UniProtKB/TrEMBL annotation:
Database matches in InterPro entries: HTH_bacterioopsin, HVO_2928_N, WH-like_DNA-bd_sf
Descriptive protein name: Transcriptional regulator
Domain HTH bat-type: 183-231
Top-level taxon: Archaea
Keywords carried by this UniProt record: Transcription, Transcription regulation
Domain HVO-2928 N-terminal: 3-171
Entry keyword Transcription: yes
Keyword Transcription annotated: yes
Length: 257
């Protein structure tokens, strides 16, 4: 089996739900389960973040009329969409959703199911302007087919990049439950890794990173300190899953004739 990891990136204004994640960097969504057939897709998502951002999320998903990142990846009209809030707390939601697929490219799970068939396994995670997908695939030709169909189906303001085609990694790691860590502390650690704070020499200081994120220096420092203390107590040697990897050239994704 091979692990195919790719990311759909959104420009501001391209999708109403994704705008919430762009505007609220502490907002985070991760799939608990996602399944699809050639006719429908259903999934469970855990969304964590500040109370105010989650309340905005509730309002948006109630009025949305186009498929969005809660349920898919495109801007096509929803054929039939049912969702239910299974759990709601001050800093988290668990959302069940089910939808039927219409004509054309409707959702990434739908595309994956069409090309992979029975045995499809997926993971997905969303933060900021990025939505990252991980698929288990046993045929390299399928990678190119999925890439081409998803890329061709992207609406304006969306772009696709490939991070990894390799032996399975995240599926085999026991890891640790990062949901125990408050979302703002997770975001602080991920930003610190992304901007090279832990590199030697450092690429950015806490002050420089806080300016990039638009939050007070003291706030970011506090969140990093608390997160690092938690990591030390848990004897964790790995990072929070932040992937700093090269992007795969699309030309390397060959599709058999």
């Amino acid at each position: 089996m091979r692990e195919f990891v790719f990311t759909v990136e959104y420009e501001k204004g391209a999708d109403e739900v994704m705008d919430l994640f762009i505007e609220n960097p502490d907002l985070h969504s991760k799939t608990m389960a996602v399944h699809a057939t050639n006719e429908s897709m259903w999934r469970l998502d855990r969304i964590t973040g500040p109370t105010e951002a989650l309340e905005e999320f509730d309002a948006v998903v109630e009025r949305v009329t186009l498929c969005n990142e809660v349920i898919g990846m495109c801007g096509a009209p929803v054929v039939e969409w049912n969702y239910e809030m299974l759990s709601s707390t001050s800093n988290g939601r668990i959302v069940y959703s089910c939808r039927e697929e219409g004509e054309g490219v409707q959702s990434i799970p739908y595309v994956a199911a069409k090309h992979i068939g029975d045995g499809l396994m997926m993971q997905a995670e969303r933060r900021g302007k990025q939505y990252q997908w991980r698929l288990l695939i046993d045929d390299d030709d399928t990678v190119g087919e999925i890439y081409e169909e998803v890329n061709d189906g992207l609406s304006e303001g969306l772009s696709l990049s490939v991070q990894r085609i390799s032996e399975p990694e995240c599926w085999l790691e026991e890891g640790f439950d990062s949901d125990v860590l408050p979302p703002e502390q997770q975001a602080a650690l991920e930003a610190a890794v992304e901007f090279g704070y832990y590199e030697s020499p450092r690429r950015n200081t806490v002050k420089e990173i806080s300016e990039k994120l638009g939050i007070p220096n003291s706030t970011l420092q506090y969140r990093l300190t608390r997160a690092e203390a938690w990591l030390a107590r848990e004897f964790v040697t790995d990072t929070l899953g932040t992937e700093v990897e090269h992007r795969v050239d699309p030309d390397e994704l060959e599709v058999s004739a």
